[in-house]
Design goal:
Distance between the termini: 68 Å
Shape: globular
Radius of gyration: 20 Å
Strand order of the largest sheet: 5-4-1-3-2-13
Largest sheet: 6 strands, mixed
Organism: Desulfoscipio gibsoniae DSM 7213
Number of strands: 17
Protein name: Putative dehydrogenase
Pfam families: Shikimate_DH
Structural class: alpha/beta
């Protein structure tokens, strides 16, 4: 049997209530502190993953530390907890482990975890990139944008996911702005993009300034708090928020009915998958990072696949080919944990066009 495990963790305190009911009603900081000392948890068994070529089954295992604590606690302590959860997956019979949410970005992005386990490890970032860019292109088309005439912004551009997103998006758009904190890394990425595509990407650390005239935005930072608000976006903007926790404030959905925000990496899983755990997605769908772990197991590729900060276009192309072989595909669009219908996108597009047509106040 092809087997895998995927590691999850609570993004915030509210996630405890979903799994532990009454226990989740304890005072938030007390609950967070208690679980900091908890051993790893077997959450559920995953069944029904199959294609015409292969089948697989696996498990969710949890490292019970919130996103906030993963950023605040000593790195060595957090890494020890992640490795402990990985060893639980190993004992359960998994042959490859996927690292979800912040477990994939702490420390050296999976390299140390892989060194301390006897099974393969992947962050799933290769397929996350593939689906984020594919979803952004399709959402832009539905919003009436011609990518060749669009200005795009990648927020978190120097991260492992952001870099490849930027390099792929540069092939499609008129102009590109890269946003991150470290100027030297931004300059290096801009030079690479110029060499590969001829696009002279602008660089900045000022998110709000970069977003003012952006029709297309991909945001993929490890920020714990939201960094994009309703006042930051132009009418008709398409924003693909790949980050968990989200980079885009929920106020954008509440106040900006002329902007389309989609979640990056929502994938339809082949077969009749049952996760036996509610992580907020419709039946039969998962994050792209989960899907990458599943398809590597189905293929019998028990190897460290996407690790560290350097992600290559070749890896993205390889995993996209495996997705096509086994029937993993983009599962429509979701925004703030709910499905977005084609009819709703039409309404967003029309509101944006009406707003852009209004004369500017003098």
């Amino acid at each position: 049997m092809n087997t895998f495990a995927f590691m999850i963790h609570p993004l915030d305190i509210s996630d405890f209530a979903r799994k532990f009911g009454l226990l989740g009603k304890l005072p938030p900081r007390l609950l967070e502190g208690l679980f900091k000392y908890s051993p790893p948890i077997k959450v559920s068994k995953i069944t029904g993953v199959y294609s015409e070529h292969a089948l697989a089954e696996g498990w969710f295992v949890a490292c019970p530390i919130t996103a906030r604590l993963m950023m605040e606690l000593p790195e060595q302590y957090v890494m020890g907890k992640i490795i402990q959860a990985g060893k639980l997956a190993q004992r359960m019979g998994a042959k490859i482990l996927g690292l979800g949410a912040f477990t994939s970005v702490v420390g050296d992005a999976g390299i140390t975890v892989a060194k301390n386990l006897d099974i393969a490890v992947t962050t799933g970032n290769s397929y996350t990139v593939a689906t984020a860019v594919e979803g952004t292109r399709e959402a832009a088309r539905l919003m009436g944008h011609d990518l060749k005439r669009c200005h795009a912004v990648v927020v978190g551009a120097t991260g492992s996911i952001g870099q490849v997103c930027a390099r792929m998006l540069a092939r499609d758009v008129r102009s590109l702005t890269l946003v991150a904190r470290q100027k030297k890394r931004l300059e290096d990425l801009a030079h690479k993009i110029m060499y590969e595509t001829g696009v002279a990407a602008r660089i900045t650390s000022d998110i709000q300034q970069a977003l003012r005239d952006a029709q297309i935005v991909i945001t993929v930072t490890s920020a714990v708090d939201t960094i994009i608000g309703p006042e930051d976006l132009m009418p008709g903007a398409v924003v693909c928020d790949v980050s968990r926790p989200r980079n885009v404030s929920k106020q954008v959905a509440e106040k900006r009915r002329d902007v389309l925000v989609i979640e990056g990496g929502v994938v339809e899983v082949p077969g009749k998958v049952n996760f036996n755990f509610n992580f907020g997605f419709p039946a039969g769908t998962s994050y792209a990072c989960m899907a990458e772990t599943m398809m590597l197991a189905m293929e019998g590729r028990y190897e460290n696949f996407t690790l560290g900060r350097d992600l290559s276009l070749a890896q993205v192309e390889q995993i996209s080919a495996l997705a096509g072989k086994h029937g993993f595909r983009l599962a429509g669009f979701r925004s703030f944990e709910r499905a977005v219908s084609p009819e709703e996108i039409v309404r967003i597009r029309e509101r944006a066009r009406a707003k852009l047509a209004l004369p500017k106040a003098r």
